[in-house]
Specification:
By secondary structure, the chain is α+β, with helices and mostly antiparallel strands. The chain is about 30% helix and about 25% strand. The chain has one domain. A hairpin with a 2-residue loop joins strand 11 and strand 12.
């Protein structure tokens, strides 16, 4: 399942508040900073303090969502880096697991609001790629029914409760709608 939507900083905070208050999902970095380990965030304030949720264009924060109800394990994989291309750093970590739900926040830059995204593998897609990654556990350990229910819950919250309007397949959340009405272009939507 994939779902794209437009959100400004206040919209992102509202979504994060929902995740922390109304679900049992844990939020982790998709990838760590150079030379750092993956962080788990336990509050919206931790995320707001670390990341610029308003600016940064398409290079905004990216997260992995997981709960024990998903069945499979979450893995923090060390990634070796070439220090020549990474300001002298030799490693970072990535958060891996077949049934993780990705949450990518788009930013606002040069009067353009980039879309945000939630998505995850389904069982069929994960099985197709399982042989390419022997580090993470097998696809059959994941509870795909629970993963799909959880992602539908997130999509419902975004699309049906937080969105001020829909444009095509995108939900445009309240703050993003205000930006759009004041002339900000929503990337991916043709006016």
């Amino acid at each position: 399942m994939t779902y794209d939507f437009f959100a400004n900083k206040s919209d992102k905070i509202n979504l994060l508040d929902f995740i922390f208050r109304e679900t049992d999902l844990k939020i982790y970095d998709l990838a760590s900073s150079y030379g750092q380990e993956i962080l788990e965030y336990k509050t919206t304030d931790e995320i707001v303090t670390k990341f610029d949720l308003e600016n940064a264009g398409h290079l905004s924060p990216t997260f992995q969502l997981w709960t024990q109800r998903f069945g499979g394990d979450i893995f923090f994989r060390k990634v070796d880096l070439n220090p020549k291309y990474c300001n002298g750093h030799t490693f970072r970590y990535s958060t891996d697991g077949w049934g993780l739900i990705q949450l990518y926040f788009g930013g606002h830059k040069d009067n353009v609001l980039f879309h945000s995204h939630i998505g995850h593998f389904n069982e069929k897609g994960a099985l197709k790629w399982q042989d390419t990654n022997k580090v993470i556990d097998s696809v059959d350990k994941w509870n795909w029914k629970i993963i799909e229910q959880t992602s539908r819950q997130l999509k419902n919250q975004i699309h049906n409760k937080l969105a001020a309007k829909k444009v095509g397949r995108y939900g445009v959340l309240l703050g993003a709608n205000i930006l759009s009405n004041s002339g900000t272009k929503l990337l991916g939507i043709i006016s």
